[in-house]
Amino acid sequence: MKTVAEVDFIQSVQDALQFISYYHPIDFIQAMHKAYLAEQSKSAKDAIAQILVNSRMAAEGHRPLCQDTGIVVGFVKIGAEIRINTTRSLQELFDEGIRRAYKDSSNPLRASMVTDPAGKRKNTKDNTPGILHVELVAGDRIEVSIAAKGGGSENKAKLEMLNPNDDIVSWVLETVPHMGAGWCPPGVLGIGIGGSAEKAMLLAKESLMAPVDIYELKARGPRTRAEELRLEIFEKVNQLGIGAQGLGGLATVLDVKVLDYPTHAASFPVAIIPNCAATRHVHFELDGSGPAKLTPPSLDEWPKIELSLGAGARRIDLSTITRDEIASLKPGETVLLSGKILTGRDAAHKRIADILARGEKLPDGVDFKDRFIYYVGPVDPVGTEVVGPAGPTTATRMDKFTDTMLHTGLLGMIGKGERGPETVDLIKKYKAVYLMAVGGAAYLVSKAITSARVVAFEDLGMEAIYEFEVKDMPVTVAVDSGGVSVHEVGPKEWRTKILKVLQ
Q1: pLDDT tens-digit map of 384-407
Q2: CA 64 to each of CA 55, 219, 235: distance values in angstroms, whole numbers, following the listed order
Q3: For helices 225-238 and 168-178, angle between their N-to-C axes, nearest 10 degrees
Q4: What is the number of domains present in the chain?
């Protein structure tokens, strides 16, 4: 019987997680480039360009594609004729590989996992534990599929127990618009059909491990009902006009994956899980001959795209910005920010709200009057970096705190995705503004940050409040001071355009 040394399993997991932190799968890059070439919406095309440029930068610099370096998910299939030489559990070996990868000093990855999820939510500091799925199969090797799944896309997962005669496509078309843009489209939809409730979710997640091949499928034609569904859902979801980052456009999904499983005669479970623009997964095998060998892709595989965000973009000095200047900003307008901004996300907002509710003063350095806040949890810097990759987090999670924050005199907010209707009304009420940075372009965004320092709540780690100084940080006006949301008007406009072409 073949034997895999425990050190080889651990090393392979560690290497794989480092690898996918800065290398997109090439099939994904090719699909994203196709979407870029076909896109007719300027704002969506600019967003895709930023994602592609960011991807190449990450590959060159060996730094994370996205500041959210994910929850680690592994599918491990162990052949019946091979064993791991260890006294530890597979979960322990898996977690040790994660621990080493995320604490690698040459490319530290952001630790996002928290324990006691319904209580204190304390960060584990090393991104363990991972989510591990194990299967015993025939053969004499160990097959591993490993992914780093971002929280923004994971939070949009849906499960529905349909009736046997319900239409899956109709359910998907109803569901996707309600997912918003926090999952950072364009990406891949994974759909699981059948089994039981938990099996459908597992199928949806596992389907996302496959390469992007929708155009190959279109060329040869479907052979199964699952493949027919892939093609129909791909076409009809893109006809919704949601577009890159929800700005309105032609490309909402790059592929649709479907896995199915037999189910109870009275049941019809269907699950959907999106993968974001920071799609990260890799596959390797172990046969006892040593750790997995992962071959880096050639940089020639990336398209050479030049960003032209400065052309026609408005430059704003945050040290002198006025309410009148904010009132002149238009939905969809590209803006380049320079000056100082404060950061804060879930934990910081909760702590701020609690302090203000007690009638206490905020810590020194935390004064939001006439300032902007950036919803971000950055990666730790290395070398000469002032901050690691620092892309935006999903803005809707901060909606419940918006009234409190705007009451402090805050002028504007920066995040990703849409804002809820009540928040849009508050932005209009306070004559503030919400700006959107591109999710999936974290390394690119970090290059606009010229200095960074923690000003409060250092114990929160990546959720501490920083003060960033930025130079020409690219953002899009997502909600203007009059309450017009580009995430509302953009998709409507492009859905109408697409329907006219189809008719």
Answers
A1: 999 999 999 999 999 999 999 999
A2: 9, 34, 31
A3: 40
A4: 2
